[in-house]
């Protein structure tokens, strides 16, 4: 579904990611791990179009018959073809309500024009109702409906993370990128998160690519794992293989 | 939106219009003039609030779009004779000289003209952010003004336009006086600006609560997140900017009519600044606040005129101090931003500390 | 155009460019450290000229003493401006600061109308500075020759201060990385005050020389030069001192040459800077000498 071919990202003289290659297949949960500053988020930024890779290309094929080269697309176009993400340092629409946050996730699928929206013409009101119902469904599924009228910033940390996922799901992604979903969570929350990830994968028919520091999350939910260190790919394989890979152990030694 | 809510809004709109009609008959000429200005400033305040308060685009170019609206309305409504008299330095382009449209058409044309310029200007500059955007829009607004000064055969240059026909309620008053013998003098017809401001309020309200309005707010909150949620930043920014310019043009056109005289110095940066004052005092992204502050600022501007004249402080009389009024206004604006901070320094400092630890 | 005329325009352009450069430095220094457009900088420039005017008309001090005292006094006004209008907002969003700056600009302008009256005042420039010399058919105002010299001297001093003194190094550190520098124990308030003093001092020197060259003072005289010099700073790459000087000269020379070569565009003289600004922002938003910074996601 997602093919990352030999991508390199340079910022001035610094090489953040160096000739990285990876593949995410349909229905998989793939992990991307590595010590701090290994370039993991930079990979996500390239997949979602925030950065253009200096070299290499990324191809996304939501289905057999159509595929897109991501390096020519802007972030919003990438969201439209079915890749959505969450952020390492939560980026919610802070001063908007929980409901609005998810509702806005639907906006990219809106077909009505501006004027029919303002004048509430039937085609818009019909769409708006669908968007509202879908947002309500997502909030219920993610156990956030109670808080629908609260401002996003007033939610506790764990719920903010979940709201970010709800918002991403509203865009109807085929591939979901999670950037450190367990950051700042305690062991119990982390446990719940793992189940939650499996649940949404089934429920929404997703393929998931995630960055994580918590080893138990990565080992617990991922089918395959890629390891980055200093921008370079050092290993990949099943959780078991990775755990016993000497290179990975070396990269992590003294870090975590 | 629920049916009930909609009915409520439609009823309040109708009530507002009835209130305007009554005010028009009851109030004296001076009060009607101020109320008329209030309506115009509501339109202008809301148009800038859409751009800045709701979409987060800090534009300093509002006066430019108002100028376009004002000149369009003036040129379309002035009669051929008035134009011939006004353009004595350099005759007007014959086509424009004979061009004359009904008032309503002129005002809408003024809005559309401003929207067109908003679109043309917005398309390149909305790629910029923050203070770069501010300074580029200010630059465009000055360019518009300089072009108006130089295009004498269209705008009459620095001399400005005089004798823009004002809209009075003479016919209605004559009818009332003839039939009911109540003897009221005709004044400015409040309905034009009044209805325009009610329509603007309704439009902005509906827009802001639609999916597009929510997308605008998302852009204001976090551009990067909005973009990642599939919102085309550029398209939405241009939309917001163009709509804001449209209403700025309408407001400018109505202002021209209510003043009767316009010239390029009217559309200097200080005019934009008055509207920023309204938006800042009323609250970013706050429709009700904007309405209230537009009225307050307009009334205060009038009420504080005495400050520019000799002051009587008990037994002593000070000399006339022109400028004092604007000094007071500048201080009010600065006090408003300095003391009414949304994120107090303590709170944002705390957030910074938290952010630092949360990163690891 | 004869060579004489061209030389005359060249001298005029250079002296105007020097004035712009002096003013642009103030914008760039402040922006470099606080990321703030000091919108009131043009008004500081205006105040400098007015203070010198009153120094000359009300006291019997020699003119050069008046000019130096006026510049120092204006520098202090700059420091006070920062303390009152910007310091309380240091942790607020950028735009809030910009609004406060615009407010300060209007405040100064209207205070000037109130205190100095809105009518123009003739600047009592000392005779020695107002003469004209004629060299091979080129007539040149003495002040037009003095301005670039004063500017260059001030630039050299400024450069030394920034490169060699402790405060200068602190300024550079703050503009490179505000957060890190503030954690390193740099007294930010002192450095910011010093920056405002330097910027306002230079603006006042510019204002005084402007008063001699174009001997008419008005409360609104700072508006256009203020905007143009901010533009100069942006064109050169804001935050970069050499950039501000370069931008100032480009604008000054460009403006004079534009009306010299294309007299039909004289009415559009003030638009030149704005058009240039927009072109630069669209082609190279960081300015000619500015560095690119990537946004962090």
Shape of chain A: globular
Biggest interface between protein chains, with counts per chain? B-C, 45 and 47 residues
Structural class of chain B: mainly alpha
pLDDT average of chain B, as an integer? 86
Question: What is the count of β-strands of chain A?
Answer: 10
* CATH topological fold name of the largest domain in chain A: Rossmann fold
The overall pLDDT of chain A, averaged over residues, is 91
Task: Kindly estimate the percentage of residues of chain A that lie in beta strands according to DSSP.
Answer: 15-25%
Percent of residues of chain B in helical segments?
over 70%
Runs of chain B in which pLDDT lies below 50 for 5 or more consecutive residues are 343-360
Secondary-structure element order of chain A, N to C: EEEHEEHEHHHHEHEHEEHH
Tell me the number of helical segments of chain A per DSSP (H or I, 4 or more residues long). 10
E-strand count of chain B: 2
Q: So how many helices of chain B?
A: 17
CATH architecture of the largest domain in chain A: 3-Layer(aba) Sandwich
From the spread of the alpha carbons, the general shape of chain B counts as globular
The percent range for helix content of chain A is 25-40%
| Share in β-strands of chain B | under 5%
> What's the story with the biggest beta sheet of chain A?
6 strands, mixed
Q: What order do the helices and strands come in, and which of them pair?
A:
The complex is a heterotrimer of chains A (256), B (360) and C (297).
Chain A: E1 2-11, E2 14-24, E3 29-33, H1 40-47, E4 55-60, E5 68-69, H2 75-80, E6 83-85, H3 98-106, H4 114-118, H5 122-141, H6 157-170, E7 175-179, H7 187-204, E8 207-211, H8 215-221, E9 224-229, E10 232-237, H9 239-243, H10 246-252
Parallel strand pairs in A: 3-8, 3-9, 6-7, 7-8
Antiparallel strand pairs in A: 1-2, 1-4, 4-5, 9-10
Helix pairs in contact in A: 3-5, 3-6, 5-6
Chain B: H1 3-26, H2 29-54, H3 62-77, H4 80-86, H5 94-98, H6 103-125, H7 130-150, H8 152-155, H9 170-180, H10 190-208, H11 211-221, H12 223-228, H13 233-259, H14 269-282, H15 287-303, E1 312-313, E2 316-317, H16 324-339, H17 345-358
Antiparallel strand pairs in B: 1-2
Helix pairs in contact in B: 1-10, 2-10, 2-13, 2-14, 2-15, 3-6, 3-7, 3-13, 6-13, 10-13, 11-13, 14-15
Chain C: H1 3-34, H2 41-58, H3 63-86, H4 94-116, E1 121-122, H5 127-130, E2 132-135, E3 138-141, H6 142-164, H7 166-176, H8 178-183, H9 188-213, E4 216-217, H10 223-236, H11 241-261, H12 269-283
Antiparallel strand pairs in C: 1-4, 2-3
Helix pairs in contact in C: 1-6, 1-7, 1-9, 1-10, 1-11, 2-3, 2-4, 2-9, 2-10, 3-9, 6-7, 6-9, 7-9, 10-11, 10-12, 11-12
């Amino acid at each position: 579904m997602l093919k990352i071919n030999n991508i390199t990202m340079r910022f001035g003289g610094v090489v953040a990611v160096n000739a990285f290659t990876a593949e995410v297949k349909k229905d998989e949960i793939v992990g991307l791990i590595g010590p701090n500053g290994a370039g993991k988020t930079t990979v996500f930024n390239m997949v979602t179009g925030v950065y253009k890779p200096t070299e290499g290309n990324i191809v996304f094929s939501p289905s057999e018959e159509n595929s897109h080269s991501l390096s020519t697309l802007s972030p919003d176009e990438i969201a439209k073809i079915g890749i959505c993400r969450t952020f390492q340092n939560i980026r919610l629409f802070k001063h908007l309500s929980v409901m609005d946050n998810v509702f806005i996730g639907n906006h990219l699928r809106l077909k009505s024009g501006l004027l029919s929206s303002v004048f509430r013409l039937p085609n818009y009101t019909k769409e708006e109702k669908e968007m509202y119902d879908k947002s309500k469904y997502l909030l219920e599924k993610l156990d956030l409906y109670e808080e629908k009228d609260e401002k996003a910033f007033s939610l506790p940390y764990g719920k903010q993370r979940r709201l970010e996922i709800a918002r991403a799901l509203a865009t109807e992604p085929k591939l979901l990128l999670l950037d450190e979903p367990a950051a700042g969570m305690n062991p119990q929350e982390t446990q719940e998160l793992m189940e939650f990830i499996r649940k949404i994968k089934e429920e929404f028919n997703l393929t998931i690519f995630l960055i994580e520091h918590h080893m138990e999350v990565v080992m617990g939910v991922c089918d395959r794992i890629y390891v980055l260190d200093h921008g370079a790919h050092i290993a990949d394989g099943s959780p078991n293989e990775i755990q016993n890979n000497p290179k990975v152990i070396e990269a992590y030694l003294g870090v975590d | 939106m629920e049916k009930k809510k909609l009915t409520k809004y439609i009823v309040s709109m109708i009530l507002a219009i009835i209130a305007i009609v009554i005010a028009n008959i009851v109030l004296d000429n001076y009060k009607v003039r101020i109320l008329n200005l209030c309506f115009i400033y509501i339109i202008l305040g809301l148009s800038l609030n859409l751009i800045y308060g709701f979409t987060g685009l800090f534009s300093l170019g509002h006066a430019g779009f108002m100028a376009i609206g004002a000149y369009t309305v003036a040129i379309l409504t002035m009669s051929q004779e008035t134009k011939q008299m006004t353009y004595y330095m350099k005759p007007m382009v014959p086509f424009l000289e004979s061009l004359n449209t009904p008032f309503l058409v002129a005002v809408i044309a003024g809005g559309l003209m401003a929207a067109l310029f908003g679109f043309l200007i917005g398309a390149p500059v909305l790629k910029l952010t923050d203070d770069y955007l501010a300074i580029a829009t200010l630059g465009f607004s000055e360019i518009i003004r300089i072009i108006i000064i130089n295009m004498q055969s269209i705008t009459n240059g620095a001399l400005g336009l005089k004798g823009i026909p004002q809209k009075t309620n003479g016919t209605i008053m004559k009818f009332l006086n003839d039939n009911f013998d109540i003897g009221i003098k005709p004044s400015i017809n409040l309905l034009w600006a009044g209805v325009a401001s009610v329509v603007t309020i309704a439009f902005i309200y509906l827009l802001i609560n639609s999916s597009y309005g929510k997308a605008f707010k998302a852009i204001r909150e976090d551009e990067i997140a909005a973009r990642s949620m599939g919102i085309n930043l550029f398209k939405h920014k241009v939309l917001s900017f163009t709509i804001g310019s449209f209403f700025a043009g309408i407001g400018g056109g109505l202002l021209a009519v209510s003043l009767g005289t316009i010239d390029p110095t009217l559309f200097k940066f200080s005019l934009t600044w008055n509207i920023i004052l309204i938006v800042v005092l009323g609250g970013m992204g706050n429709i009700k606040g904007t309405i209230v502050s537009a009225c307050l600022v307009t009334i205060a501007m009038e009420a504080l005129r005495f400050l520019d004249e000799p002051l009587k402080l008990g037994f002593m009389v000070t000399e006339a101090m022109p400028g004092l009024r604007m000094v007071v206004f500048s201080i009010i604006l600065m006090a408003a931003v300095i003391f009414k901070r949304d994120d107090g320094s303590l709170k944002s400092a705390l957030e910074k500390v938290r952010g630092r630890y949360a990163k690891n | 155009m004869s060579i004489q005329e061209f030389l005359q325009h060249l001298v005029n352009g250079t002296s105007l460019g020097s004035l712009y450069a002096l003013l642009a430095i103030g914008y760039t220094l402040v922006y470099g450290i606080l990321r703030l457009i000091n919108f009131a900088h043009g008004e500081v420039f205006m105040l400098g000229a007015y203070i010198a005017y009153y120094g000359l008309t009300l006291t019997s001090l020699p003119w050069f003493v008046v000019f130096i005292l006026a510049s120092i006094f204006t520098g202090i006004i700059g420091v006070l401006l920062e303390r009152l209008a910007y310091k309380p907002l240091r942790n607020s969003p950028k735009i809030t600061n910009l609004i406060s700056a615009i407010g300060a600009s209007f405040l100064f302008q209207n205070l000037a109308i109130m205190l100095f009256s809105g009518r123009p005042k003739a600047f009592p420039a000392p005779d020695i500075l107002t003469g004209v010399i004629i060299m091979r058919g080129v007539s040149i105002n003495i002040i037009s020759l003095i301005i670039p010299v004063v500017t260059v001297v001030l630039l050299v001093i400024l450069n030394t201060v920034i490169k060699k003194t402790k405060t200068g190094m602190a300024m550079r550190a703050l503009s490179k990385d505000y957060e890190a520098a503030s954690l390193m124990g740099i007294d930010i308030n002192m450095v910011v005050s010093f920056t405002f003093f330097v910027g306002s001092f230079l603006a006042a020197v510019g204002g005084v020389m402007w008063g001699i060259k174009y001997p008419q003072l008005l409360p609104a005289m700072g508006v256009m030069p203020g905007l143009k010099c901010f533009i100069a700073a942006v064109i050169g790459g804001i935050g970069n001192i050499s950039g501000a000087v370069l931008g100032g000269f480009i604008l000054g020379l460009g403006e004079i040459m534009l009306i010299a070569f294309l007299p039909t565009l004289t009415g559009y003289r003030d638009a030149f800077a704005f058009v240039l600004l927009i072109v630069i922002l669209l082609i190279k938003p960081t300015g000619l000498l500015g560095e690119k910074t990537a946004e962090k996601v």
